[in-house]
Amino acid sequence: MSADLVIRNARVVRHDGEFHGGVAVKDGKIVLTGADSALPKGHREIDAGGRVLMPGVIDPHCHLGVKYPYAEDMRTETAAAASGGVTTALLYIRNLKPSYLPFYEERKALGEENSIIDFGFHFGIQREEHIAEIPEIAAKTGVRSFKCYFGYEPDNPIGIVPATDGWVYAAMRILSKIPGALINVHCENTQIASWMKNEIKATGRQDLGAYTESRPAFCEVETIRRMIFLAERTGCSLHLVHTSVGMGPVLAAEAQARGVHVTVETCQHYLTRTAYDSDLDMRAKISPPLRDKEEQEGLWRGVMNGSVYSLGTDHVPFFPKKLEDLWSELPGVVSFPWELSLMLHFGVHQRGLPLSRLVQLNSANPARRFGLWPRKGNIEVGFDADLVLVDLDEERTVHHTGKGTCIYEGWKLKGWPVLTVSRGAVVYENGEIDESLFGRGRCLSRPS
Ligand SMILES: [Zn+2]
C-alpha cells in the first residue's frame, strides 16, 4: 500500500494515551497508525522530529459573518483557525427569518466555497417559529444543536433576540425526543444584570471591572441552576457554553451524578485573563465578562478534574473597538490563532495538564458532543486525517494582524502548532497558510 501522506517519528497523543510513531493517510482518511517501521511509504513524507502529533482542534464555538461578510470571514477566520491548529470550526449562527432551511443551504454553500477547514452549525433560536421547525431542521440539515441566548437586553447592538424561559422549555421538550440533539444556553440573568448596570453606570465608572461587577458571577450561576432544572425536568441534553464561573463545573458534576445530561464548556480567555489585569480596558469587554482569580481557579479545577467537558474560543471578529464608552462598546474578542498555544503554555507547561487530557477537551469531547464521532477527533484508522503537529518548546510572541480584538498581544507563549492537516491536506506549515486550499472545507451537518 502507498499512502498520500505519512507523518513519522512523532509523539502521537490521543485522548486515551500516546505512542511513538506516526500515521499514514490516504484519500483524506487515516489508514494506518503505529510504529514508524509499520508505516508504508507516502507520496509526501514528514519527519515530525519527535514533536507532538495530536488530533486537530475542534473549536465548537465561534461567530462568523456577524459584522464582516460571512463569505469573507469564512476565508480570513478559518485561515486564522488553521494556523492555530484548528481543523473543524462550529459556528453559532442566527437567522431572523421564520425558517432556517433556506439559510442553511445558503450558508453551507458559501462556507464550502470559502472555508479552508471543515465546519458545521448550531442554530440560534430567534423566534417562536424556529422552535416548531426543530424536527424538520434536524431531518433536513442534520443540525441538532440549538442555542438560546440569555445575557442580552432586547435592544442589544448585536441584534440577538434574547430567549424566554418559555422558549427554552418548549425547545428542550422537542429536542429531548431527537437522538443526539442538544440545547446550548448562554447563561446570565439579564434582568438582574440590567438593574445592576444602571446602578454602576450612574457612578461614571469606565474600567473593565465595572462591566464585570454589573453582571456578577451569581447572575450566571442562577441561570445555570435554572437551565439544569429545566433539563432535568424535560430530559433534554444541555450544554453550558462559555462558562465563566467556577460554580459551573461544580453544578454540572452534581447534576450529572443524578443523571442529568449536562456538559460544560469554558473558553481560553476565562482561564488566562481576569477583568482586573492591569493592561486590560474596555477592549476586553466580552459576554459573559472576564471575572476574577477565584472564578478562574474554579474553572482550572474543572479543566483538571474533568468536570469541564470541552473548550471553545467564542471567537468573534468584530470591527475595531471604539474605546469611547464601556457600556456601549460591542463585546467580543478573537482567539483562533492562539487557542491551542494558550492551553499548552498555561495548561500543559504551567499546571501539568496532561496532553491526553488536552486532546479530550479540544478534540475527542467536542466531536462526541456534536455528532462528529467517530469521524473527527481521534488519530485512529477510519477517522478523517485532521491533525496538528505541535512544537512544545517553541517560544513565540503573540502579534495579531487580523480582524477583531486580541487580548494577548505581546505575550510570549511556549508551545505552538507548526503544521496543520485538514482531511489529509497540509493547510498550514512554516508559518504560512496554503491559499490554494480555500474552498476545500466541507459542511459537516448532513441530512439524516
Ligand atoms: Zn458565543
From TrEMBL:
Top-rank lineage group of the source organism: Bacteria
Alphabetized InterPro entries for the sequence: Amidohydro-rel (IPR006680), DHOase/Allantoinase_Hydrolase (IPR050138), Metal-dep_hydrolase_composite (IPR011059), Metal_Hydrolase (IPR032466)
Domain Amidohydrolase-related as annotated: residue spans: 52-427
Gene3D superfamilies membership: Metal-dependent hydrolases, Urease, subunit C, domain 1
Name of the protein in question: Amidohydrolase family protein
Source organism per UniProt: Variovorax ureilyticus
Phylogenetic lineage: Bacteria, Pseudomonadati, Pseudomonadota, Betaproteobacteria, Burkholderiales
